[in-house]
Amino acid sequence: MNKKTIITTLLALVAMVGQAQEKREYNISGFVPDGTEKVYLYKTEGLGSRVFLDSAIVADGKFTMKGNRPAYDLVSVGNKGLHSITFFVDGEPMTVDFANDTLIASTLNEKFQGYMAEDKVFTDNFYRLFMASKKAASETEKHEIEQQIAANNEAMIEQARHVIRENRDNVIAAYFLQAASGYMDYEELSAVIDSTAYYFNHPLMNEARQRLQVLQFCIGRPRRAEPPT
């Protein structure tokens, strides 16, 4: 590694450490369907458990919510009766209309929502096919459906790869690396987990970095000696 590359990498790391310590404001206003009394801000953690961070009382079908979170923290807003919106806390105001399913947000978050909508098509298709496989009338039909499931999953992972390639300059790639990293070999994963990438130190990258370490260990592990004959 030459001197220029070392300096560039160090500067990127310093910037990302500063980003991790930085706080950003979330400023959310929104409209909800009749009967909604409260809206929550929460994080989804392992096994789908929710950690509630904030809440807002609904008045006349409207709510507002304001606070601070670590820069680019990934959180969701909604409740049990609403279609939740997941977004990055980037300091830009956001308006959510749950009644009409519309969102006005930063360029980053509107772009993220577009990718999420594409991803949902694959997810919905998977569950539809999965339920169809359980009701298959024959082994032949079940096998055909399983092939469709495999093709759907491959298309979903390929879409994630595309998103990662197109978003090296922002944190969107970190979200999609969670799903795609498990399907990547060492060469591909090491190429996208690059210390100069903007998303390198985002908490969403923890699982992908751990997988890279495991793959690196497996590749670098010395061959076990053969027992004497």
What does this structure look like?
The protein is α+β, with helices and mostly antiparallel strands. Helix content is 46%, strand content 21%. It is built from six helices and eight strands. It has a four-stranded mixed β-sheet. A four-stranded antiparallel β-sheet has the order 3-2-5-6. Helix 2 (107-134) runs antiparallel to helix 3. The protein starts with a helix and ends in a 9-residue tail after the last helix. The relative contact order is 0.10. Mean pLDDT is 86; it is low at 1-19 and 221-229.
Major beta sheet, specifics? 4 strands, mixed
Q: What is the count of helical runs?
A: 6
Kindly report the oligomeric state of this protein. Answer: single chain
Helical fraction: 40-55%
Mean pLDDT: 86
Q: Say how many strands there are.
A: 8
Structural class: alpha+beta
Strand content: 15-25%
Order of helices and strands: HEEEEEEEEHHHHH
Q: Report strand order across the widest sheet.
A: 4-1-7-8
Give the termini distance in whole angstroms: 45 Å
Runs in which pLDDT lies below 50 for 5 or more consecutive residues are 1-19, 221-229
Radius of gyration: 22 Å
What general form does the structure show? globular
Concise synopsis of the structure shown:
The chain is an alpha+beta fold. The chain has six helices and eight strands. 46% of the residues lie in helices and 21% in strands.
Please give a handful of descriptors for the protein shown.
single chain; 229 residues; alpha+beta; 4-stranded mixed β-sheet
SSE layout and pairing:
Elements: H1 3-21, E1 23-31, E2 38-44, E3 50-57, E4 62-70, E5 74-78, E6 85-88, E7 94-97, E8 102-104, H2 107-134, H3 139-166, H4 172-180, H5 186-192, H6 206-220
Helix pairs in contact: 2-3, 3-4
